[in-house]
Amino acid sequence: MDKEKILNLLGLAMRAGKLVTGEELTIGDIRSNKAKFVFVASDASDNTRKKIKDKCSYYNVPCTQSFLHSELSHAIGRTRMVIGINDQGFATKFKELIKG
């Protein structure tokens, strides 16, 4: 898994307006089937990680916890623990890059 490539792509998705940030907005997009892929910071609280992981598994949305809060925040330029990707093309590319 090439972390730098994934984080650069995350920044591109942010500039393209294809993601939503924050726990509540991401949960809303998961429920409405807009979210295609979700990033959760590995150092987020246990409650946040469990809540997002449970929602993702219930609604069949791929989710990763492979990145720290600082890495995700630096990539998008905002301090966030949870990021939802709303574009199928970006989501597919993230899945490919994470699987290696």
TrEMBL record:
GO cellular component terms attached to this protein's record: ribosome
Domain Ribosomal protein eL8/eL30/eS12/Gadd45 as annotated: residue spans: 5-84
Keywords, in A-Z order: Ribonucleoprotein, Ribosomal protein
Ribonucleoprotein listed as a keyword: yes
Highest taxon above the source species: Bacteria
Upper taxonomic lineage: Bacteria, Bacillati, Bacillota, Bacilli, Lactobacillales
Keyword Ubl conjugation attached: no
One Pfam family named in its UniProt record: Ribosomal_L7Ae
Protein name, as recorded: 50S ribosomal protein L7
InterPro entries, alphabetized: Ribosomal_eL30-like_sf, Ribosomal_eL8/eL30/eS12/Gad45
